[in-house]
Every structure is written in C-alpha cells, then in structure tokens.
Design a protein that fits this description.
Elements: H1 8-11, H2 16-22, H3 30-44, H4 49-58, H5 66-78, H6 83-107, E1 111-112, E2 115-116, H7 118-122, H8 124-142, H9 149-170, H10 179-203, H11 209-236, H12 239-242, H13 248-251, H14 257-265, H15 268-279, H16 285-293, H17 298-320, H18 325-337
Antiparallel strand pairs: 1-2
Length: 342
C-alpha cells in the first residue's frame, strides 16, 4: 500500500538519517507524532536554565523514536488511536531516553547520536539526575490518564528493565555466560519496553485480549532482534555510521550472542585467544576481537537468530491484524530492525 512521507515538522523531531529511513512508515501517524513531539517539550519544560539546557541537549538522542512509533502504529492498526496513545507514546520515549542516559554512565560511553553523551559533557552526577528527571516526568505524565492501567504496566516494565541491567552487571566478565542467560538479559533490558509499547497500543485501541497479547509478543520479538542487531553493530559497525561509542560490550566484559556462540563453537586455541583478549587491557582489543570473530560463523548465527525473531513477529501481524496501511508499516518496520546499520 502506498504511503506518503510525514510533514517536515515531524522529521525535525529526529536526526535526519533516522527520519529519512522511517519517513514512509510514519506517514499514517504523522499528526500523532507531532503531538508527541509537542507534549514531550511541554512536559519537560523547566524554569531553570541549567535544566532546560540539558533537556534540550538530550532531546537529540530521540533518534528513530521507535517506541512511540510502535505505540501509535499498533494503536492505528488495532482499532484507532486516541489522546491516550499520544500520552503513552510520550511516556515510553521519556523512559527510553532515561535508560539511554543511565546506560551511557554504566558504559562510560562518550558518543551518542554522533554527539557527546551527557556524562561525557557534564559528568556522571548530572547524567544520573537527568535520567531520574526523565523517569519522574514520565510517571507524572502517565498519571494524567483516567485509567491507571498504563501506569501500572509501564511501572512494571521499568522494574523489569532494571532487573535486566542488574542481571547483566552480575554477569560482567562471566566468560561462560550461556545463551539462555543472554536472552534473559536482553528480553528484560530491551524487549520488555518494546513489548509494552505494542500491548498498550492495542489495549487502548480497544483490541481483544488475544490481539493485545499477540502484539505484546510482536513487540518482544522485534525488541529482542533489535538488541541482537545492536550487539552485532557494537562488534562490527562503523562509529561514523552507527553514531555512538562502539566496543563498549567487550570493554565492560559483556558477552553478546556472537561472542557466546564463538566461545562455544570455535577451535580451542581461538577460544583461548578470545578469553585472553576479553580479560586483557590491550589498547586495540576491540579490533583484535573483531578480526578474530569476523571470519567465523558466529556473526551469521546471531544475525539469523534476529531474522528468525522478526519473521515470527511479522507472522503475528498477518494472523491477528486486518490489512491496513498501519499494519503494512508495522511489517516493514519489523523488517528494518535487522536491516539497519545504525
């Protein structure tokens, strides 16, 4: 089905490259995305110049706005959007941005969206407090809804995200990390939020419980695939194209799917070399890890896992949603999750 690009006002809410990729897919929700952009700015406005400066700066992190798009497209495809969808879409973006700010502190990251991170510019104290500021505003805004179902669902999800981060921290430098534990981590820290986006989008559109559950699974699948792709890009991407610090996983002792697979299947001498690189502090360790893993089957293995999750997600759309422009856009969005290079 043909779709038209959204108006320029919507494109300004995200970096140009991300907007160009998503422009055809956000056309059915252009007005709603613009409303999210406006609500986001109003809700976070502060009379303190120092706070306003940080809020304005961190707004550039909004990038693809994947989570608001999931809320709105799912709502549109499952029955239609309401003012509640605009609020929920704004809330999940605030929560997501808070996790990005806090993640950059945890990873000592210096680059995000091709610019300096808050922690690099202003220090960890300011970054932690800004993340808390975003979270508190998210729940303040969510409480404005007549129904508290969204507040409870998003509150539960933020707890799950924190559990995922804590589980990952607990497994830092665990060179025997299993694939099962890896998926437990990413399903909590990343996929839980995309899952609740799609579930709430369907719920507040008046969808049946069966459809809402299917959309929750759709969101979880593409969120998991998104994180696998992120992990692949962290290992093999180009920093100028990806636009954020790379190699953070290896530097922080976080084992990702291609590394886990390599540790299980590579020749013994190669596994031992990878172990020594992971625990060492060589200045070019990331490049050596990349060169060691790249010729193996491990990158393809991880990529195929992500593609399989996306295929399952797309099948749920075909089974549970009636044909529409919004459903077509959701389907294409799912495909792009594993096709992206940034």
């Amino acid at each position: 089905m043909p779709v038209n690009p959204p108006p320029p006002a919507v494109l300004r809410s995200a970096p140009a490259a991300a907007a160009a990729v998503l422009a055809p897919l956000t056309a059915p929700i252009a007005a709603e995305l613009l409303a999210v952009d406006q609500l986001f700015s109003r809700e976070l406005a502060s009379d303190l110049a120092c706070v306003q400066t940080l809020v304005k700066y961190v707004s550039r992190f909004r990038g693809k706005m994947l989570r608001p798009v999931l809320v709105l497209l799912t709502g549109k495809a499952a029955g239609g959007t309401t003012d509640a969808h605009t609020v929920i879409a704004t809330v999940v973006e605030m929560v997501h941005m808070a996790t990005l700010v806090h993640d950059d502190v945890l990873d000592d990251a210096e680059l995000r969206r091709k610019g300096a991170t808050i922690n690099h510019l202003r220090g960890n104290e300011a970054a932690v407090m800004l993340g808390d500021f975003l979270i508190s505003h998210a729940f303040h805004l969510c409480s404005s809804l007549q129904s508290q179902a969204a507040s409870r669902a998003i509150g539960h999800t933020t707890n799950v995200v924190c559990e995922g981060e804590l589980l990952q921290i607990d497994n830092r430098n665990n060179l025997d990390l299993t694939e099962e534990t890896y998926f437990k981590i990413i399903e909590r820290k990343t996929a839980a939020l995309t899952a609740v986006c799609c579930k709430l989008g369907a719920d507040f559109a008046g969808a049946t419980p069966a459809v809402a559950e299917a959309m929750e699974t759709f969101g979880r699948n593409i969120g998991t695939a998104f994180q696998i792709q992120d992990d692949l890009l962290d290992l093999t991407g180009d920093v100028a194209q990806v636009g954020k610090s790379l190699g953070a996983d290896a530097a922080k002792g976080k084992l990702t799917l291609p590394v886990i697979h390599f540790m299980r299947t590579a020749p013994v001498q190669h596994r031992e070399l990878l172990r020594s690189l992971l625990v060492g502090n060589e200045p070019d360790k990331n490049e050596k890890i990349r060169n060691l893993i790249a010729p193996s089957a491990s990158l393809l293995y991880a990529s195929e896992k992500a593609k399989s999750l996306v295929a399952s997600a797309r099948a749920l759309l075909a089974t549970h949603l009636s044909p529409s422009v919004a459903r077509t856009c959701l389907d294409e969005l799912a495909r792009l999750v594993v096709a992206r290079e940034a």
